[in-house]
Design a protein that fits this description.
The complex is a heterodimer of chains A (216) and B (712). By secondary structure, chain A is of the alpha+beta class. Chain A has a domain at 131-213: DNA polymerase, domain 1. Helix content of chain A is 36%, strand content 12%. Chain A has a five-stranded mixed sheet with strand order 2-1-5-3-4, with helices on both faces. Chain B has 712 residues and is of the alpha+beta class. Chain B has a seven-stranded mixed sheet with strand order 3-5-1-13-10-11-12, sandwiched between helices. Chain B has a six-stranded mixed sheet with strand order 7-17-16-15-8-29, sandwiched between helices. In chain B, strands 18-26-27-28 form a four-stranded mixed sheet, with helices on both faces. In chain B, strand 27, helix 16 and strand 28 (653-659) form a beta-alpha-beta unit. In chain B, helix 6 (208-215) crosses helix 7, helix 13 (452-464) packs parallel to helix 14 (491-514) and helix 16 (603-623) crosses helix 19 (680-692). The N and C termini of chain B lie far apart (71 Å). Classes of the chains: A alpha+beta (216), B alpha+beta (712). At the A-B interface, helix 4, helix 5, helix 6, helix 7 and helix 8 of A face helix 1 and helix 16 of B.
Chain lengths: 216, 712
């Protein structure tokens, strides 16, 4: 299958590697949350401290606003957005970092939010599909307040049922920012990390090319 | 404006394509901005105050008897509100992922964990999950009887060439990206219960009864909402047990309950397409004319048996045929309607056998199919479509005889043909003209990705001569006028003709109201460019005309109109592939789809629908299949990592041509959901055979199967 399928979590710490790291032995020994999580959440304390399972206070920077939440440490960024902040643009489909429907930007980089824990997204900028439109709102003359990439999806019919669309929009936007002069071949190679069941790839490809051609 | 003295009122008939400003053009989706911005709310997105999450404990075995269910650990967990055992000790479960218990909790995470902590002891029973081998399936296979027409033995004996083919395709799952599920809220007032059910369904008008029966209330007390849905493909007609449980727990707790399937349940339980395999023989004359067709088929639709219906497909007038089907019951959830039920499978089997006959005879497949069109019911259409498709894929220049290529990378061409009914369903549309010129349509339909809102609005805007933005469309609630379930490519015919009917009635009443003022007869008026126009040159803005209707809105109701719809379409598809004979990897380079569907309402979404069908066909031809574990009897790849779908780089160039000659257009509107999804698998299979000189016996044509075919 063409193109890289997986977008690594920006921190390099995916839920999968987290769980893998928490093998049975480690759990039994009462140790060890991954170093990065500990560093971020227990910086003031000496020695390792296991977070949870009860909710902990966390703060997320979502679409330019600080949001305070009380979440179990196992809650993913995707579930934090969808179930606790009612930002339901990012969708839950595979829940295992395969399909890309949950794609959001973390410090500007596309990640599968189903595979990033909310606690590890602290201190980083989270941008969702809702935020893309909001940040465009003041700067665009678009009649529906859409960002250019979103408008290109509409114009090129890069959507049918629309369930993969928000994730695709974010993946495409991240790709566009990193590849402002991409060719068609680069577009399809770069967007292998998102799946669609209705079969909208033709429209998606043209949406990205359109967005690139038309400038930022 | 040319005067049209003869016309007494706005014709119900579709306007002449040349006079249309919207109908049949490329119109972007009305709900496109909502979908692209994340504002569109799907069932999975419904968050209600104090909502509980429901998750299920299911059986991990192919067949088992429940010995005991221990809910004590789950019940004690903080945040768990309900643990209900659905099937008690002694119950036999006949396939993996059968429901055993349901839990509801304060959060999704807690509910999921609690469902896991319900401890169930099983007595594991023998099962069968073999769907592709009649001998191995043993008593699960029920050998069919021969169905004979003409005299096949004599015809085969007289044939110049007899070819043999073995081919088939695995069980697929619908794999909707939004899983099946509902969120239900039950309220009680004066001792009477009523419910609101957000349900991901392709049957908004018809699904209330299932929730009602789960709650022992009348369907009139169930409000169903489905503003957007993330795929259905034939698998989302009902509320299912998960919808019923959400309703029951909502009633019991007085709190909203959301029950969406986890991905593994979605793939294992919520819809699959039957497998179909066959050994076939085709007898042909020297000149390529088919004289006999024989098929011995088998396959499974899950617990209920299955296998291919009678062969040959499409070439059903071949004079001498023999067909036998052996359904195999497997311990897996029952199949559901999957876009064009049975057609893609029958198409693969038949087209592969015919392609092999052409190769055996040394004849160009395109000439062979042309030669035998007389055995189909729509020979003229297919002849026309074969010509268009051959031109678009450059068949003449690119085709080489099967097996001629010797390089590592081998290219091949293949074709397939299909048919589908597609007459529109019964539908009602309410049109309201407000005194200020506002237009609103209401229809209890749904949008699976078809573009239902856009279709309704295009028809109204065209009829009233308004820009599409002026039309407000309300769908996705069962309180709106009834509209049929979206299945079998019936939606666009139904809702477009009902919309036309409602709007024409309103336009005629509007013309009656303003005719005198414009110095013309009502029948002479036309609605164009935001105005009501008389032949004498006088005109009035649409808004002013609506004011003449009085202070109350004008409401009309339209129904499905047979005169505006057609049925029975044909399509031809061609594929060009490249096969690496060292790795067995197949790449689709190009696909061409030529399709008739009568009058097109929205060319943009119609083309999208066809391209989507091609891509779904690429998935079935090369990537996706449900894999069962013969040891445990469960699904091995109930996820998106190993249940493989094509990615954006895997689909090649997709060329769509809609047959839009006047003869096609005058047939009226015909749905497009099923037809183009039928041929791709067959066309790609034939293209691979053409490239490598051997038939890959099974779709998806994974590298191992391609290499096995090369070795054979």
């Amino acid at each position: 299958m063409g193109g890289p399928r997986r977008v690594e979590a920006a921190s390099g710490l995916s839920r999968r590697s987290f769980l893998k790291g928490m093998g049975a032995g480690a759990l039994a020994a009462g140790a060890i949350a991954p170093a990065e999580v500990l560093a971020r959440s227990t910086a003031q304390q000496k020695g390792p401290k296991l977070l949870g399972p009860e909710p902990v206070a966390i703060k997320l920077q979502v679409n330019g606003k600080e949001r305070a939440l009380s979440l179990e440490p196992r809650v993913t960024l995707l579930d934090a957005l969808r179930n606790h902040l009612d930002l339901t643009g990012a969708k839950k489909v595979c829940d295992r970092a395969t399909c890309g429907s949950c794609t959001v930007l973390l410090d500007g980089k596309a990640v599968y939010s189903c595979t990033v824990l909310a606690i590890e997204a602290q201190g980083r900028k989270v941008e969702t599909v809702e935020g893309l439109a909001e940040s465009a709102a003041g700067k665009t003359s678009d009649k529906d307040g859409l960002a250019r990439m979103q408008r290109c999806f509409v114009e090129n019919d890069g959507q049918q049922c629309g369930f993969c669309t928000p994730g695709f929009v974010m993946a495409c936007e991240s790709f566009r920012r990193g590849h402002p002069k991409a060719t068609r071949e680069q577009v399809v190679a770069g967007l292998g990390g998102n799946l669609c069941r209705c079969g909208t790839y033709h429209g998606v490809t043209h949406a990205v090319l359109d967005a690139i051609g038309g400038g930022a | 404006m040319k005067p049209r003295a003869k016309r007494r009122k706005v014709d119900l008939a579709w306007p002449d394509p040349k006079e249309c400003s919207l109908l049949g053009t490329r119109v972007t989706r009305l709900d496109g901005p909502d979908k692209a911005s994340g504002r569109a709310k799907y069932t999975y997105d419904v968050n209600r105050p104090k909502m509980l999450w429901a998750k299920f404990t299911t059986c991990p075995h192919g067949r088992a008897k429940v010995k005991s269910v221990d809910t004590s650990v789950a019940e004690k967990m903080a945040g768990v509100v309900v643990v209900d055992v659905v099937v008690g000790p002694g119950t036999e479960l006949r396939y993996a992922y059968s429901e055993v218990a349901v839990v509801a909790a304060e959060s999704e995470e807690i509910a999921r964990e609690a469902a896991r902590r319900v401890k169930v002891e099983y007595e594991v029973l023998e099962h069968n999950v073999v769907d592709d081998d009649v001998e191995k399936a043993g008593s699960s296979a029920r050998k069919g009887r021969d169905q004979v027409s003409g005299n096949p033995d004599e015809a085969f004996a007289s044939a110049a060439v007899v070819s043999e083919t073995e081919v088939g395709c695995s069980i697929l799952t619908h794999c909707c990206l939004e899983p099946h599920g509902s969120a239900v809220e039950v309220t009680e007032q004066d001792g009477k219960k009523s419910a609101t059910a957000w349900c991901s369904t392709q049957n908004v008008s018809g699904v209330a009864g299932e929730f009602a029966s789960a709650l022992s209330i009348d369907a009139s007390n169930v409000r169903v909402i489905c503003q957007h849905m993330g795929g259905g493909f034939g698998s989302k007609f009902g509320a299912d047990f998960w919808g019923a449980r959400a309703a029951q727990i909502a009633a019991k707790t007085g709190r909203p309950v959301k029950a969406m399937l986890e991905r593994d349940m979605e793939l294992a339980l919520a819809g699959s397409r039957p497998s179909a395999y066959a050994k076939m023989r085709v007898g042909v004359k020297d000149d390529g004319e088919i004289v006999a067709f024989e098929g011995d088929g088998w396959g499974s639709a899950g617990i209920r048996g299955g296998g291919p219906p009678r062969l040959p497909y499409l070439f059903s007038n071949v004079p001498n045929t023999r067909f036998k089907n052996t359904p195999i019951a497997t311990n897996s959830s029952g199949a559901r309607a999957w876009r064009a039920p049975d057609h893609p499978q029958m198409c693969l089997l038949t087209m592969a056998a015919l392609s092999d006959a052409a190769a055996e005879l040394g004849m160009d497949e395109l000439d062979f199919f042309r030669k035998n069109l007389k055995f189909t019911d729509r020979a003229m259409t297919y002849a026309e479509e074969l010509d268009v498709a051959a031109e678009l894929i450059d068949w003449k220049k690119k085709w080489t005889p099967r097996g001629d290529q010797k390089d590592v990378l081998r290219r091949g061409l293949g074709l397939a043909m299909h048919t589908w009914g597609g007459g529109g369903h019964g539908s009602n549309v309410q049109c309201t003209l407000f005194p200020d010129g506002g237009v609103e349509l209401r229809c209890g339909t749904q949008d699976l990705g078809v573009g239902s809102r856009t279709v309704l609005a295009i028809v109204a805007a065209e009829t009233f001569g308004l820009p599409i933005e002026k039309v407000k469309v309300l769908i996705g609630e069962n309180s709106y006028p009834q509209s049929g379930p979206s299945g079998g490519s019936t939606t666009v015919g139904g809702i477009s003709s009902a919309s036309r009917h409602a709007c024409v009635q309103a336009a005629n009443q509007l013309f009656e109201a303003v005719a005198g003022e414009l110095g013309a007869k009502a029948g002479e008026l036309a609605a164009k460019g935001g105005k009501v126009v008389a032949p004498n040159g006088k005109s009035m803005s649409f808004e002013d005309a609506c004011r003449r209707l009085g202070a109350q809105p004008l409401v009309t109701m339209g129904q499905t109109q047979n005169s505006l719809m057609g049925s029975q379409v044909g399509g031809v598809q061609m594929a060009e592939v490249e096969v690496d004979v060292e790795t067995g990897i197949v790449r689709v380079l190009k696909m061409v789809a030529v399709q008739d569907c009568g009058r097109v309402i929205d060319l943009l979404t119609a083309e999208s629908q066809v391209r989507g069908a091609l891509i779904m066909g690429v998935c079935g031809a090369l990537y996706e299949e449900r894999i069962m574990d013969p040891v445990t009897g469960t699904v091995l790849n109930a996820d998106l990592e190993f249940y493989k779908l094509a990615g954006i780089a895997d689909v090649g160039e997709l060329v769509v041509h809609m047959m839009d000659t006047p003869d096609h257009v005058k047939r009226g509107v015909i749905g497009l959901g099923e037809p183009p999804v039928i041929s791709p698998m067959a066309a790609i299979s034939n293209a691979v055979a053409n490239a490598i000189g051997a038939r890959v016996k099974r779709c998806p044509m994974t590298p191992d199967r391609v290499l096995a075919a090369l070795k054979a």
